[in-house]
Amino acid sequence: MTWPRRDGTNAPRSFLFIEPMAPKRFLVVRDSAPDGALHGAVVAMGNFDGVHRGHQAVIAAAQERARTLGKPAAVLTFEPHPRAFFAGQEPLFRLTDEAAKLRLLASTGLDGAIVLTFDAALAGLTAEEFVRDILVGRFAISGAVIGFNFHFGKNRAGSPDFLTAQGRKFGFTVDVVPPFELNGRSVSSEPIRAALAAGRVDDAAELLGFPWFVSGEVIHGDKRGRELGFPTANLRLDTACGLRHGVYAVRVACGGRRYDSVANFGRRPMFDSGAVLLEVFLFDFAGDLYGQRIDTAFIAWIREEKMFASVDELTRAINDDADKARAALKRAGDVFPPI
Mind listing the domains of the chain with CATH numbers? Predict the structure, then answer.
């Protein structure tokens, strides 16, 4: 596996296809559960929504520090996302839910992840209490690695400078990773969300380092696609998903295989404009996927969702979408998230 350099200069103009690390034991420790092999680890701290290139730089720095100290390397992260906790009912478009985030983190070669429940009790800890009671008292960390803008503790009082001073006090190393830039752009979760909201999935993939993907269980639909000759696997995504409605070239993983596909995400204005669904037509596939979980990676934008004058016109458009999706997927090569 090759992580990009911090300045992003080795990143290609399209996708950086990252092969997952060879399988190894990835330990997930939650709250007060025994930390076992992660006791004394070097921890990369953050939310890691998307596990994008900037996050990857922080993880790589933690792994390097852990190798130097002869300690395990782990992430320390929070669920739910702190922004979701403080926002209450306001929806947050997460790039990765908890399961997807842990799958991506496991692919990096880390020894594990410490997942802390972000609730009122944790939010109420001062920065001093978080260091003393959690980092030192609970996990006895050997080192902490954070991004340049990471803050923690009540009222976000725990700055990088504060953590560095606490490291000297308690005897753990602290590394602060500078901003990660790609072709002059700072990489963070917000530009990725903005790219997806505009349908620019190729742009999002550049910032992530791999194609953005969703996972979900295939549910029953109205079977209209089957009647048109395009049976689809239907997924209901999180209602906060901010992906632009439209048609995409996608690649699906299910049953140990990958299938080039075309997908529509939206409300189907031709028929009912009902609940938002992701409808995926898998090329060269025959079988029943109901109840199975599939991963769908978004490779290229094709067109916006639209109303057609007739079902025949819609059918011709779907055929054209499929042709364009096949061509886009061929141009992209064998790209897929490292999961």
Answer: 27-182 (3.40.50.620), 212-332 (2.40.30.30)
Contact 103, 21 (CB under 8 A): no
231 with 281: CB under 8 angstroms?
yes
Q: Which residues contact 322 (CB under 8 A, 6 or more apart)?
A: 230, 262, 281, 283
Q: Give me the amino acid identity at 46.
A: G
How many angstroms separate the Cα of 39 from the Cα of each of 58, 106, 134, 279, 284?
20, 18, 12, 44, 48
pLDDT tens track for 273-306:
678 999 999 999 988 999 999 999 999 999 999 8
Burial label for 257, CB within 10 Å (0-12, 13-18, 19+), is exposed
What is the pTM for the complete model shown?
Answer: 0.90
| Residue 169, token pair as written in the block | 């006090």
Confidence of residue 150 (pLDDT cuts 50, 70, 90): very high
| Token pair in block for residue 292 | 């199975």
